[in-house]
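Lab notebook, design round three. We kept the backbone fixed and only want residue identities now. Task for the bench partner: fill in a sequence for the structure below.
Input structure tokens:
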């Protein structure tokens, strides 16, 4: 039984690690979004999202490079290829998040929602962002795996 579990972990190691760091990236994204939402005001949620996106992309690039896809080279030539392609791929997820937030908040009135967890009030903007995060994490994995950190044959 333990060897079967070990085999599965080895087989799906990259996905397991990606989900772990994707989760941490989502936490960074949501935390920065919540923080700047408080600082700038909830009505500036699209600006707040841009700041959160940038912080999350920087965190994701480093963790993806080192632990998920194990891209070992830090040469200028490799970085000059990886960094722009990583950020460019993430621009698509940024656009999806911005449009999705606009739809959820302005068109579907998520800004009128709130839930209380423990003693924390969670607004509709953060709820919408969390829902969109699921789509973004899956999409970013596929793009990173197939394009940015693709293993050379």
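Proposed sequence:
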């Amino acid at each position: 039984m333990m060897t079967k579990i070990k085999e599965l972990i080895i087989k799906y190691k990259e996905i397991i690690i990606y989900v772990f760091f994707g989760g941490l990236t989502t936490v960074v994204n949501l935390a920065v979004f919540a923080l700047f939402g408080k600082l700038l005001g909830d009505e500036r949620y699209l600006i707040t999202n841009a700041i959160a996106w940038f912080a999350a992309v920087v965190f994701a690039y480093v963790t993806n490079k080192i632990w998920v896809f194990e891209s070992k080279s830090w040469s200028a030539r490799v970085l000059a290829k990886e960094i722009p392609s990583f950020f460019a791929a993430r621009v698509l997820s940024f656009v999806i998040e911005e449009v999705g937030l606009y739809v959820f908040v302005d068109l579907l009135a998520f800004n009128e929602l709130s839930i209380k967890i423990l003693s924390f009030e969670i607004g509709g903007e953060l709820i919408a962002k969390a829902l969109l995060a699921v789509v973004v994490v899956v999409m970013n994995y596929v793009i990173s795996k197939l394009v940015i950190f693709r293993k050379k044959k």
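Keep this in mind before ordering anything: The first strand starts at residue 114 and ends at 117.
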